[in-house]
Amino acid sequence: MKTLGLLLFIISFFTFGSFEVLAQPKVYPVLSQQVDSPELRIQDMLMNFLNPHIDDAVCNYYKQILTVCPTVYLISLM
Q1: Is the pLDDT at 26 greater than 60, yes or no?
Q2: Residue at 77 is within a domain
Q3: Alpha carbon of 29 to those of 23, 71, 74, 76: distances in Å?
Q4: Pair 69, 63: CB distance under 8 Å
Q5: Which domain holds residue 71?
Q6: pLDDT of res. 18
Q7: Percent of residues, the chain, with pLDDT higher than 70
């Protein structure tokens, strides 16, 4: 009985272990090929220009409540 179980284990090991998995790699676009729209560029420039002013306004608003100024992260979800 043990030899039958061992024999089945060895056969299943070689049977299932011999399958080769061929996975296709994901193709990601090269960053140099991605082009932003003019509207997105203007939005990025505007947010980069306004970010220090937004940080100052948030810090002034919370300065009596908090001991450390909160950090504002401007994340675009487009």
Answers
A1: yes
A2: yes
A3: 19, 32, 25, 20
A4: yes
A5: 37-78
A6: 56
A7: 60
The secondary structure of the chain as a DSSP string is: -HHHHHHHHHHHHHHHHT----PPPPPPPPGGG----HHHHHHHHHHHHHHHHHHHHHHHHHTTT-SSPPPP------
19 domain-assigned: no
10 CB-near residues (< 8 Å, 6+ apart): none
More confident residue, 72 or 6: 72
Whole-model pTM? 0.47
Per this entry, what is the length of the chain? 78
Tell me whether residue 7 is in a domain: no
Q: Is residue 69 part of a domain?
A: yes
Domain count across the chain? 1
Sign of the four-CA dihedral 3, 4, 7, 12: negative
